Amino acid sequence: MLSLSIPRVALRAAAPSRQLAAAAGASSVRFASTKSLKDAVAEIVPEKQEQLKKLKADYADASLGEIKVSNLLGGMRGLKVMLWEGSVLDSETGITFHGKSIPDSQKVLPTGNDIGVKGSEILPESMLWLLLTGKVPTAEEVKGLSQELAAKGKLPSYLEKIIDSFPKTLHPMTQFANAVASLNHDSKFAAAYSKGIKKTEYWQPTLDDSIDLIAKLPAIAARIYYNVFGRGDGNQAIDSGLDLIGNYSKMIGYGDNEGMTDYLRLYIAIHGDHEGGNVSAHTAHLVGSALSDPYLSYSAALLGLAGPLHGLANQEVLGWALSMQEAVGENASDEQIKEYLWKTLKSGRVVPGYGHAVLRQPDPRFTALSKFCDTRPELRDSSIVQLVQKVSQIAPGVLTEHGKTKNPFPNVDAASGCVLYQYGLKEFTYYTVIFGISRAIGALPQLVADRYLGMPIERPKSMSMNALEALLKK
Ligand SMILES: CC(C)(COP(=O)(O)OP(=O)(O)OC[C@H]1O[C@@H](n2cnc3c(N)ncnc32)[C@H](O)[C@@H]1OP(=O)(O)O)[C@@H](O)C(=O)NCCC(=O)NCCS
Questions:
Q1: Which residues contact 57 (CB under 8 A, 6 or more apart)?
Q2: What is the pTM of this model?
Q3: Is this entry keyworded Transcription regulation (predicted)?
Q4: Whose CA is nearest to atom 25 of ligand 1?
Q5: Domain ranges for the chain
Q6: 77 CA closest ligand 1 atom index
Q7: Which of 160, 167, 209, 463 is most buried, most CB within 10 Å of its CB?
Q8: Is 411's C-beta closer than 6 angstroms to any atom of ligand 1?
Q9: Is 282 a catalytic residue?
Q10: Which CATH number fits the domain 1-53+72-457, given the four candidates 1.10.1330.10, 3.40.120.10, 1.10.580.10, 3.30.70.260?
Q11: Mean pLDDT by 10 residues, the chain (474 residues)
């Protein structure tokens, strides 16, 4: 298994809890008082505020490069115009979370086994802690956060009624975004703002709302799954001894499937943040800059995630791969796969799961998910997983020959759906909802940072083509 090959230096932090867990039994682990996530954020706020103050004082007029017409006409690619604390995406080496690559994160972040639930992949709670504080949490801290999330995970009855009122034919992402926006009914930030809370304190109810929202996302997503597809635990019962995704997996009917549960943890942890400029993260930040509360801001992010060039791609990839499998059969030759790729391209469509706006190498998230597949016999032997992996070897050559995309390599969406499919979660229109649970653990921490840094409302300058011509022809 992948986890066995990873040297777990995290155990510096996690070992005591392992022993405790073993001694106490998985579901009855209790730890002496440990730092809460809110305490950990409060600790870093003064130094972050000081860092921003110094940057403004010392470098306010320093240039970060020129703006070209191609930037304005090309979706603002490459322009350094956003502050984002949690992660950085390098075009060659991929994503790092506070400086840690995915393999680095797998070495140091606590897993299920570290907190007394079965599983050797990163817990999304661990990633959330890292993204919010820049620090690797101890297993005890993650366990405490898991318990806090379980305690806050139940949906209010008004929200259950709202979700139940959606027609089954409404796309699951539209339902998800609507449900998240409705929780603004209970926003602590909105309530505090209307009472006149001081600007310096904005971050606190923003963090409270963010934790409440992250806690409730699994139950919202599971209720939508149950209503639309009739699968899973109809009442979204929460087990206080389970982690966030252990509970989610149970709610959607996979509680006894260790492989699927651990895959969901890995998938959700590594999809959490992809720096700030992607549509969902940027949207949460933009809407939040108007001081909309975390529910409204994240609901808007989900609507961006629902676009086919962004999160919806993982729904598209699988449909495309299955059509290919139907067309070329289970043991397709390289030549047949090439032909199918060309057929897709010649029909004017993109090859879903390939290309990226920033990356110029295979996506390390794709690599991490592929490695997960290599370590599990049930995935390694799956014909659809094998086909997807074979395509990932052949498509870069075809896309290079085609000559349009700047990055012919697979992105994360090329791998994510086939694993869900193999584990029996075959409802494609639901796949982006799982991505939507994940992106909250990256977008909401930045919203908290925006508030403790006192970031202003976002308001770039736009230009018409006439104004542009007038300026350029001067
Ligand atoms: C991700 C994506 C939206 C990035 O877009 P981008 O930054 O504009 O990408 P590029 O600069 O490389 O695009 C240049 C050209 O290559 C094309 N191209 C990019 N990826 C392609 C792909 N996978 N298949 C075919 N053509 C592709 C673009 O459509 C564009 O064509 P155009 O000049 O006719 O408009 C794009 O690669 C894509 O559509 N991929 C498929 C969908 C997908 O997997 N999305 C998930 C992303 S994580």
A1: none
A2: 0.91
A3: no
A4: 350
A5: 1-53+72-457
A6: 7
A7: 209
A8: yes
A9: no
A10: 1.10.580.10
A11: 32 38 38 77 98 98 96 94 97 96 98 97 98 97 97 98 98 98 98 98 98 98 98 95 98 97 98 97 98 98 94 87 92 94 96 93 94 94 93 97 96 92 95 97 98 97 96 92
